[in-house]
From TrEMBL:
Domain Peptidase M20 dimerisation: residue ranges: 228-380
UniProt keyword terms in alphabetical order: Hydrolase, Metal-binding, Protease
Protein's GO biological process: proteolysis
Identification of the protein by name: Peptidase M20 dimerisation domain-containing protein
InterPro entries the UniProt entry points to: Cyt/Met_Dipeptidase, Peptidase_M20, Peptidase_M20_dimer
SUPFAM superfamilies in the cross-refs: Zn-dependent exopeptidases
GO molecular function: metal ion binding; peptidase activity
Length: 492
């Protein structure tokens, strides 16, 4: 694999002198990364995709069926095969909590500080309706690998390892590196917080935290996520009668649980505009945020909308591209992501149903407390129910949003150098509308740390949905940028 590739390079006259004199040659980093992705990472991810493992929230038998351990072992087997100098790891496991991979790579550049690299190995539910491959049937089509979890976030652990091995193979120094890969991110990362508290002394105080679990806006640039939204998921059930009854004799007399649910949701969201009506869920949006959005629009233009599969004639929520970026990253939004209580259309009779349940997912802008938002939502959902209906609320553990501090000059320079050398275009900041629960916690735990949160998930990648995919070529370039930044950390 990588070793054979470098051995062939070493036969070039004066290779070793060349090797030392161009230690941060981005082109050579890209060549080694590209070969490593093709020969090792992609075959590993295809094996990983074939295993039907799910995150803890979606598989009640995760601790006994062996799938999660199998998927983890596939990734670890590749990491071990790289023979990274100074690498040790352990699998941390406690009853009722999923497995955690905790790895350390000793510094080849002494006294250069610690880097923490994070990713996750658990997957979202498979879903039906795939038209390219399947959730456990990986295929490569038009340079993209399809299958559940490949880009979210199976590549993170092998990708991090490949970056480190590449630097070592090219003689590029690096600081001490801690690797953390969890199995619960798609659920809530609650166990990860527990584990990190136990491992806190062994981790130390990282200067740089690299997270490989975010998104991109195009394939032509390197992206750094500088903010993440939080999320609150709440199950709401409305009950009105003890059993379903014929609607001919009861409609107009008995209240509809579905209509009461509509009324509850209208307290949260203006159904005409999508605007959230609860003040506690909003944050101040500074002028600099709008300026940053305008900068992204300058590069992206109409593609901000064009990448989504809108049905012909359907319009986005506004024609203002700047406002669309603000909406998806700095404003709260509501999505109904599940419901129970109505039969399938094929089985629907003239019956008024006794209860109706929805799962509401509310995205929260950075700076809004998930705990405060949950309390405000419960207040609005349960107050003064129509017809004195029974309203039951079951909230899940909320996640706070997160916003990056300004990059230190050395890191900003490294990020821009990496993007310009690999993509021949500047790096862009990205406000991510999704959530990585662990990042907010790390920001509080290590307030002086710098963050590089990046990823390979394009607007077309469909994580969590059918036809999840990622660009193999972009993976190579993104990992090349990450390796470059890690190397620059040791020379700052």
């Amino acid at each position: 694999m990588i070793q054979g590739f470098l051995k062939r390079f070493s036969k070039i006259p004066n290779f070793h002198h060349f090797h030392q004199s161009l230690k941060m040659d981005s082109q050579r980093i890209q060549e080694v990364i590209s070969q490593g992705v093709d020969s090792g990472v992609i075959p590993t991810l295809m094996d990983y995709i074939r295993i039907p493992s799910l995150s803890t929230a979606f598989d009640p038998n995760w601790e006994t069926n062996g799938y999660m351990e199998q998927a983890q072992e596939v990734l670890l087997s590749y990491v071990r095969s790289l023979n990274i100098e100074g690498f040790t790891y352990e699998i941390v496991k406690e009853p009722g909590k999923p497995w955690l991979v905790f790895g350390e790579v000793q510094a080849t550049a002494p006294d250069k500080g610690t880097i923490l690299m994070y990713g996750h190995m658990d997957k979202q539910p498979h879903l039906s309706g795939w038209t390219v491959g399947g959730p456990t049937d990986p295929v490569i089509v038009d340079g993209k690998l399809y299958g559940r979890g490949g880009g979210d976030d199976g590549y993170a652990l092998p990708g991090a390892a490949l970056c480190i091995k590449t630097l070592q193979s090219l003689g590029i120094p690096h600081g001490r590196i801690v690797i953390v890969a969890e199995n619960e991110e798609e659920s809530d990362s609650e166990s990860l917080v527990y584990y990190i508290n136990k491992l806190r002394d062994r981790i130390g105080s990282p200067e740089l935290i690299v997270c490989l679990d975010s998104g991109i806006m195009n394939y032509q640039q390197f992206f750094i996520t500088t903010s993440l939204r939080g999320v609150v998921n709440i199950d709401v059930t409305v009950k009105t009668i003890l059993a379903g009854m014929h609607s001919g004799g009861t409609s107009g007399v008995l209240p509809s649980a579905y209509r009461i649910m509509q009324h509850i949701i209208s307290r949260i969201e203006d159904e005409r505009t999508g605007e959230i009506l609860i003040p506690e869920l909003h944050t101040e949006i500074k002028p600099s945020i709008y300026e940053g959005a305008a900068q992204i629009v300058k590069f992206m233009g109409p593609y901000i909308v064009g990448a989504f599969p809108l049905i012909n004639g359907v319009k986005p929520m506004t024609d203002d591209l700047v406002q669309l970026l603000i909406n998806r990253s700095w404003k709260p939004t509501l999505t109904v992501i599940g419901c129970e209580g109505l039969p399938p259309v094929a089985d629907a009779g003239n019956v008024i149903q006794p209860h109706f349940t929805t799962r509401l997912s509310v995205r929260l802008p950075p700076g809004v407390s998930g705990k405060v938002a949950t309390e405000a939502l419960i207040r609005e959902i349960t107050r003064d129910p129509l017809y004195n209906a029974v309203v039951e609320v079951t909230p899940q553990s909320p996640s706070d949003g997160w916003a990056q501090n300004d990059l230190e000059p050395w890191l900003n320079e490294a990020v821009q150098e990496a993007s310009n050398s690999v993509f021949h275009a500047p790096a862009l900041n990205l406000w991510e509308g999704g959530s990585i629960p662990f990042m907010g916690y790390l920001g509080e735990l290590f307030p002086s740390a710098q963050f590089v949160i990046t990823g390979i998930l394009h607007l077309e990648s469909n994580p969590h949905s059918i036809n999840e995919n990622f660009s193999i070529e972009y993976l190579k370039k993104a990992l090349s940028c990450v390796a470059y930044i890690i190397g620059k950390h040791a020379s700052k």
